[in-house]
Amino acid sequence: MVATVVLGMLCVHLLCFSGMFVLISTRLRGKKMGTDVFALGSLLLGIAYVLQLLGGAAHWGVMSVINHTLTLCAPVAYGLGAARFFDRPVPVARPLLALAGGYTAAQWLVHAVLGSEARYALLAAACAVLFVAMAVVLLYGTRTFARHLRAEMAVFAILIGGLGAMNAAKLVMVLSGGLESLDMGTPFQTAFYIYMSFLGTVLPPAVVWLVLHRLTDDLHVMAAHDPLTGLLNRRGLMDALEAHFRSRPAATAHLLIVDVDHFKRINDTYGHKVGDLVLGGVAEVLRHTARQGDLVCRLGGEEFVVIAFDTDGTGAMQLAERVRDAIECSQVSDGHAHEAIRCTATLGVSERFASAEALDERLQQADAALYRGKMSGRNRVECAPALQAQGLPA
């Protein structure tokens, strides 16, 4: 009686959570993060347990066959949803339909050859293998694709691994005690459905929390990055500088400001869409030319900043010259049959600094040097007066 009540509550939980995931997925629109597939998994498992309640004791029949198929398909749907949550664009409909068809045929074959007990043993064995495999993947994820969610993935692995262990125990009981061991009144079945109800109550809200976690992370990334180029914006640059100098108190840096020459002329001649392509091309050049660990930022308009860490004035000037040359040698297609568009840039290099609070002062220094470069003909590198005093070229 207890197991029946718990199973009924579990059905209600699963169907309600399925509806909740549907609502969440409709609000997320383009980036659903697997919530629509989680809704499908909850629906499949909820229907499976409704069929089990309606079907009564373990037996052979169409309702029981559908129940077993849905019971196996549901965790696979959850796994596919998890893959989508971690940005793996896996298909859903075809794998689930193939599994449903293949497992339904396997049930008929096993029942015809080995009997009804073997069919129930097949489900227990398949679920045990599936849940253990899912737990292993989650543990693997703590070191690879889910390093930022290690604690959460470890907890999920333990809970799902426990479900695998219980299905393995069910397999042993079916093989040793027959179908009578699956009676809803047995202590094992009561414990099994209490554990399932616990998982059905805990895991869906945990998934919702992970979705909110991802959305919050995405908002932080959006707030710190320029939407056109994907580079850091000024806020992201300041946060990254503060983090760098906080973790390395003895670190120093030089600031390079990069301004695309005659950018207004490019916009007026080719249009703003091509102008955006040019800015994207310059951003790519900066990404590939900057050294590993340097920061690259778009200040706004056609102005960019590179923060070169752990280098002297000579190294900063050499980096600036490489950037200038790389931009001059690059080209952007306007998407039509016209000639490729080229551009140049003028750069200003600041003195060395050792704190995020000095950013504004060094920006002014580099901007003054940049202005001198513009007045001297553009497509050149100019440095702050203090660097000139060290014998570096103006």
Structure description:
With 394 residues, this protein is of the alpha+beta class. It has helices at 2-28, 35-55, 62-85, 93-114, 116-141, 150-177, 187-224, 234-247, 263-270, 272-289, 313-329, 359-375, 385-389; strands at residues 253-260, 295-300, 303-309, 345-353, 381-383. Helix 10 (272-289) packs across helix 11 (313-329). The mean pLDDT is 89.
What assembly state would you assign to the polypeptide chains in this entry? single chain
Strand count: 5
Distance between the termini: 88 Å
Main β-sheet description: 5 strands, mixed
Shape: elongated
Please give the radius of gyration in angstroms. Answer: 31 Å
Helicity level: 55-70%
Give the strand line-up of the largest sheet: 2-3-1-4-5
Average predicted local confidence, pLDDT: 89
Count every helix, treating DSSP H or I runs of 4 or more residues as helices.
13
- The structure class reads alpha+beta
How big a fraction of the residues is strand? 5-15%
Structural domain tally: 2
Low-confidence stretches: none
One letter per element, helices H and strands E, the order comes to HHHHHHHHEHHEEHEHEH
In short:
The protein is of the alpha+beta class. Helices cover 67% and strands 8% of the residues.
Give the key terms.
Alpha-Beta Plaits; 394 residues; elongated; 13 helices; alpha+beta; five-stranded mixed beta sheet
Secondary structure elements and pairings:
Blueprint: H1 2-28, H2 35-55, H3 62-85, H4 93-114, H5 116-141, H6 150-177, H7 187-224, H8 234-247, E1 253-260, H9 263-270, H10 272-289, E2 295-300, E3 303-309, H11 313-329, E4 345-353, H12 359-375, E5 381-383, H13 385-389
Parallel strand pairs: 4-5
Antiparallel strand pairs: 1-3, 1-4, 2-3
